[in-house]
Amino acid sequence: MIAIGNDHTAVELKKEIIGLLEEMGLEYKDFGVNETKSVDYPVYAYRTARAVAKGECELGIVLCGTGLGVSIAANKVPGARCALCSEPYSALMARQHNDANVLAMGARVIGPELAKMVARTFLEGAFEGGRHARRVDMLTRLDSGEALE
Ligand code: RB5
Fold this sequence. Notes:
The chain is an alpha/beta fold. The protein has one domain: Ribose 5-phosphate Isomerase B, Chain: A. The chain is built from six helices and five strands, in the order E-H-E-H-E-H-E-H-E-H-H. It has helices at 11-23, 41-53, 68-74, 88-96, 112-124, 131-143, and strands at 2-6, 28-30, 59-64, 82-84, 102-106. A five-stranded parallel beta sheet has the order 2-1-3-5-4, with helices on both faces. The longest helix is centred in the N-terminal third of the chain and has 13 residues, at 11-23. The termini are far apart. The mean pLDDT is 98. Residues 7, 9, 41, 64-66, 68-69 line the site of D-ribose.
């Protein structure tokens, strides 16, 4: 199950990404809006990231105009590791090295075809573990307010 959430700037991009999810045979839960009336992106990023952090969804995708606001909001949810990506290399590394579980993209930054390529790469990528696991564990410790000295 994939969580997806968006603000008013990314209604069209979300439709494109949902089309990709359907093509990939992936089920999804939509936490975003479907109208272009202005809304506050933190709400939708939070709901999407929370579904991932709680384990209700394996991965999430958050969309706003730049991808910045939703990525900042998602990363404030303990257990969420959100990566803002505009090209596939970063999307692959986000999964392989950072075990990112939420992908952020900006609807005003990238076009739909590149966004779908980025999303597919993210969804198909897998965490490599090994030395990266220690570092991801450190990220998890930051969630609980631990100081890394
Ligand atoms: C909305 O105008 C815009 O600020 C929002 O979509 C996003 O880009 C915020 O980071």
